[in-house]
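Aim 2 progress update. The chain analyzed this quarter is reproduced below.
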Amino acid sequence: MFILDLLVVLLLSYTGLVTVYLFFFAVAGRLRSLPALRKPVGEALRRMAVLIPAYREDGVILESARQGLSQTYPADAFDVVVIADSLQQSTLDTLRTLPIQVVEVSFAQSTKAKALNVALQQLPEQYDVAVILDADNLMAPDFLGQVDAAFGQSWNVVQGHRVAKNTNTSVAVLDAISEEINNHIFRQGHRAVGLSAALIGSGMAFDYRLLKELMPSVQAVGGFDKEIEMRLLSRGVGFGYLPDALVYDEKVQSEAVFERQRTRWIAAQFKYLQLNAGPGLKALFAGNIDYADKVFQTVLPPRILLMGTLAIGVVAGLLFGSSILLIGAALQLALLLLTFYLSAPAALTRKIGPAELLKLPLLFGRFIKSIYRMKTARNQFLHTPHGADPVSKP
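Predicted structure tokens:
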């Protein structure tokens, strides 16, 4: 009995630490807004390359390429570059009719990192900023202008605000809410206390020379953004966040795609925990809080697993008469739900109904399955398909 109680206390200590960590940054993000961006008067516009890797994305890349040209930023100050990997010939032919650049690539095993490396090797040195999008992303018209203003304030890396392009299924609604919780806690909340925002794989902008110097060392199969984060933060390079620079991103629409995507994400999380645990601890004592905090994030469980575990803990505490488990799990679950309330926009939470609530246990199960499938994602890029179903436009 003593051993069982000890295990319960250890589990609750871990989940409690995680819950308090999330709550702290949720509150911080509410209490402090980020300052408005103002481009210095008379400063020249930065020339930008908008890089869009597209692996078998025939269903969405044409719209993204066309819409990428519709910026309020001067047309002669940026280029849209589609990195075409395994696209159909008809798609390539249509892309070449647009005023964009097309870089064709082909690999035995495709990854976003490989595609970006080839493009950066082929593109000229005339750019100041590189913006990275996913093939399904649509930039708000003023996105590049806000990026330019941020670089005028001495940032070398900034993350835009990625928001949902579609909420047409219950899974998409929950995925959209999850994204906004991430934005609030790991971007808004972190910047509010002076820490770096988290990168998310798209809607990111880098100093062009910094990215070109860094990318040859990035060989990630999945989670290339995590590798970039770790490498740059370990060098003391921080990341800004642009809450008003919107990039519309397609949310997963089915449980199967949700599981596939999360398998890739959780495999990357465990990989970079293993690679950075030791250096991250040393960085903490050396004063590199940004890097140490990023490494700590790799031990955080996915929120749906945390919420499901605490809910199971409440039920188990009732069934087995364990007051420690019941009270501890119930208090933490209440704090976690408050964290979600503080972090999620009301416009999205109002979309939660019986169908979305019923999906939560199913997605919890899918996440458990994704943990068992991690080994597959370590050596094989698990592509998330886009555009399979109609999606609502922003």
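The radius of gyration is 21 Å. Residues 2-32+262-379 form one domain. These observations will guide the mutagenesis experiments scheduled for the next reporting period.
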